[in-house]
Specification:
Arc Repressor Mutant, subunit A; 2 domains; DNA-binding; ArsR-like_HTH (chains A, B); alpha+beta; homodimer; three-stranded antiparallel beta sheet; seven-stranded mixed beta sheet; disordered C terminus; Aminopeptidase
DNA sequence: AAGAAATGCGTTAGCACTAACGTATATCTT
DNA sequence: AAGATATACGTTAGTGCTAACGCATTTCTT
C-alpha cells in the first residue's frame, strides 16, 4: 500500500482506516446477530455498566471524548431506550446517565458476542493485535506526557536554527553520496551504468583522479552532496550534485556549488563545466547565478544519455558570453 | 484510562483517538508555521507528487479511501488552487487530478516541516512509534487476507455450537474457581476473609470435608463453577456459585445447580441449604426454580456479612412450604 | 452492430465528531 | 452577602467521511 511508504507522515490516516475497519466489522456482527446496539455505544454503555450511573463529563473523561460527544450519544441512547437522564439532586448542573433495565438485559445477553469479538480479532490478526495494543498503550502514555505538536515544533525550530555546513568527503559519508544521487536520478531519469559505477566507488572514480566531493550537513542530517571530477589536467566537471528532496530551498545546493567552485580555484583549474538536463529548471537557474553559462550545443562526447544541457563556468569579466 | 481495560473491544475507539491526535498535532504545526495546507490533504497531494497526474479512482485506491472521499477532497483542493481536474482524452469517464504549479511550490517548501514531523513524532513517542507502525502494517496485511467480521462470526458460531458440559474438580481448574468467584464478589460485595481462605485452597476447605466442586465448560472456555460444602454429616451448603459475566444466559448456572443437587442426592444428604443476597435477583429466581424455598429469616450463625437470604432445598412433595 | 453489463465519477443524505457558544448552577473571593 | 469566576451541560454549525444513487462512458456479449 502506498501509505506505508510515507511512514510516520501517514500514520494518522492508517490508524483511522484500521479503526473504521474494526468499527465496521463489529457493527456488521451486531447486525448479523440481531443485537440492537451499535459499536460506537460500547464505551459509554460498558462504562455505565461497570461503574454505575455517572454524570456526562465523567463519562466523557473516562472514555476520552468531549462532553458534547457524550451528550449527543446520550440523546441517541435515550431514544433507543438504553439510558435515562436524571438531574443530580446534589448538583443541579449535572445530568446523570443511568442504564435502563432494558440496557442491562441487552448488555448481559451480549457476553458471548463480546467473547466472539475478542476471539475473532485474535483469530484474524493473531499476535499482531497484542503488539498493536501494547504499542497503542505505550503511545497513549507518551502522548499524555508530551503532546506531539510540541515535539514537532521543537524539532522544526532546532532544524532551522541548525548551522548549514559543507564538509569534505569521508568514508563514513559514502552511503550518503549514493543515497542523495539515487534520489534524483531515480525520480527524473534512469540510473545509467556510469552512474552506478561512480556511486558505488566514488573514491576511485572521483577522488583518485584528483577530484573532490563535498557534503552539506544541516545539524546531524546529511542533506546534500556534490562532486568535482578532474577529467583531464586542469579541466574539471561539476557533477553528482544532489540535495535531498526534503531539504530543498534551504540554500544547501548553493553552498555546495560555491564550495566546489572555490575548490576548483584552489586547485588552479583552467576550465570547469557541467552537463545537465533541461528538465531540471531550478538547478539550471542556480548554475547561472553561480557563473555558469549555457552553451549552444551539447558537449561533444558526453557520457550521459540524459544530458541535453552543457554549461561552462565563465563568471562575469572572465570570459565573454557565448553569442547566440 | 478506562478504555485500556476493555482490551480488544475498544481497540477501534483508541485507534481513532490516536489518529485524531496525530492529525490535530500536524494541523497545529502547519498553522503555526503558516503552511497553507491541511493534514488530511497529504495522502492525495503526496501521491500526485510522487507518481504524477492520476484519475480519482486510482488515487482513492492507492490511499485506501472511497472514490467519493477523494472526489470531495479534490473539490476542496481545486478551490485551494492546488489541483486541476481534467477529462482523460482516452477515457471520457475519468477525471484526472493534476497538481498545479502552486502545489508543486508549496510541497517542495514543506520538506523541512515533514522532516520535523517525523523527528517530532520520534522524539515524543520514541521507539513505540516504530512498534506501532510495524503492528499496524502487520494488521493491515492480515485484514486483507481475512476480514475481521468473518472471523468474529465464525468464532461466535463455534461458541454457540460448542457443547456445554459440567465437569468435576481437577487441580488444573483451581485458578478458574478463584477467578469466577472473585468476579461476582468484587462486583457486588467485598471479599470477606472466609471467601479468600476458601478460594485460595478449595481442596482443603471444600473437598476434604466431603464436598464437591463442579465446573461448566463451553468449548474450551471454563465459564462457571459451583461448590457443595458438607457443613456437618449429611448437611450440605450450596456455595461459591459463579458464572462468568460474559457467558450468562446460556444455561450454565442451571446446569451446575442441577449437577450439585444430583451430587447431594448421590451422597445421601439430609439437608441442602444456601445463603445469598437479595441483590442477586436472577440467581434467587434460579434457586427457586430448582427447588429451593426462601426461609423467613437469615440462617442463624451465618458465616457471611452479605447474606440476607436463606434458602433450603425442599422440592415439591418432599417437605411442606414453610409458613409465613 | 446493438444491447447488456461494468466502470468512473459526482452528488446527496446522513453519521460521528469537534469547536464554539449560551445558560444554568456551583464555588470562590472579599 | 454579592459579585466574579468556574463548572456542567446542551445546542449549533461545520468537517470528514461513507453509502447509495444516477449519469455518462466504456467494455463485454452475441
Amino acid at each position: 500500500m502506498y501509505l506505508e511508504s510515507l511512514g510516520k507522515l501517514a500514520l494518522g490516516s492508517r490508524l483511522k482506516a484500521l479503526s473504521d475497519h474494526l468499527y465496521g466489522a463489529v457493527d456488521q456482527v451486531y447486525q448479523a446477530r440481531g443485537a440492537r446496539i451499535e459499536s460506537r455505544w460500547l464505551p459509554v454503555l460498558r462504562y455505565l455498566w461497570d461503574v454505575g450511573p455517572r454524570p456526562v463529563t465523567e463519562v466523557a473523561e473516562a472514555i476520552g471524548q468531549t462532553h458534547s460527544a457524550v451528550s449527543q450519544l446520550a440523546d441517541k441512547l435515550v431514544r433507543a431506550g438504553m439510558v435515562k437522564r436524571r438531574r443530580d439532586p446534589a448538583d443541579g448542573r449535572r445530568s446523570v446517565l443511568t442504564l435502563t433495565d432494558k440496557a442491562h438485559r441487552a448488555l448481559s445477553e451480549l457476553g458471548p458476542l463480546w467473547w466472539a469479538v475478542r476471539q475473532g480479532v485474535t483469530d484474524a490478526l493473531g499476535e499482531h493485535v497484542e503488539r498493536l495494543l501494547d504499542a497503542v498503550a505505550a503511545c497513549e502514555r507518551a502522548l499524555r506526557e508530551r503532546p506531539v505538536a510540541d515535539a514537532i515544533l521543537a524539532a522544526h525550530a532546532a532544524l532551522l536554527a541548525a548551522p548549514l555546513e559543507v564538509v569534505p568527503y569521508a568514508p563514513a559519508l559514502r552511503t550518503h553520496f549514493r543515497r542523495l544521487n539515487l534520489q534524483w536520478l531515480e525520480r527524473h531519469f534512469r540510473v545509467e551504468d556510469i552512474d552506478r559505477a561512480v556511486l558505488d566507488d566514488p573514491e576511485r572514480h572521483i577522488l583518485q583522479s584528483g577530484g573532490a566531493i563535498f557534503f552539506a550537513r544541516l545539524g546531524k542530517e546529511v542533506v546534500g552532496t556534490c562532486a568535482l571530477l578532474q577529467e583531464s589536467p586542469g579541466v574539471f566537471e561539476l557533477t553528482k550534485m544532489g540535495v535531498d528532496e526534503g531539504f530543498r530551498g534551504l540554500g544547501a545546493g548553493r553552498r555546495l556549488l560555491d564550495e566546489a567552485i572555490a575548490e576548483f580555484h584552489r586547485r588552479g583549474g583552467r576550465m570547469l563545466f557541467l552537463e545537465s538536463s533541461s528538465t531540471l529548471k531550478p538547478a539550471l537557474r542556480m548554475y547561472e547565478q553561480a557563473g555558469f553559462r549555457l552553451q549552444p550545443s551539447v558537449r561533444p562526447g558526453s557520457h550521459y544519455e540524459r544530458a541535453d544541457v552543457y554549461m561552462i563556468y565563465e563568471p562575469a569579466g572572465r570570459a565573454p558570453r557565448a553569442p547566440g
